[in-house]
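sanity check both lines:
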Amino acid sequence: MIGQAETNKGEKRVLARLIGIAVATSLCAGAALAQNAPPTRIRGTIAALNGQTLSVDTREGTKVDILLNDPLTVSTVKRFDLADVKPGSYVGIATRTGANGQRDALEVLVFPEAMRGAGEGHYAWDLEPGSMMTNGTVSGTVEATSGRQLNVSYKDGNQTIVVPPNAPVVTFAPAERSDLKPGARVMFGATKNPEGKLAASRVTVETNGVAPPM
């Protein structure tokens, strides 16, 4: 009987250890998935900045709290002349499908040279339902009847995009943490940290009446 009792205790200890290892493994896997998960794009208006927590009223009508990492990069956007977008410019263009099947630009972001190659490709975007994002190098430009036509090349493909006269065209510019003011519009990506909280290392904020259109 004593031997059986000791055996039972030993089995319980082994089982408890296995459960502990399984829980720890699950937690580690969850943390890894959180770190490797694609970012959540935050678009909206700053409600408040309290210490390291940025509260944003999102375009979806909810309020989210974002932990600002240290170091934090704050950028803004400034207007860019479409006529200065030339072959060789590296751009990111959100588009919708036009009535005749062409790709019409919703906005154009001209990347600084240091960001050449960022997000290269053609993929689904969430600026509006059905929108796409094309990041690549302008390989040609022509004047179009309804704006300007850009041919954008990227690895494994290219897109011809018409930029209508009313599409915002911007480029990045430096900003300060002090620009994160209530009422300023923002757009940035946030990911969950190991504690499960949304966190961001970079925020793009409206300044001088120019909001990030992406």
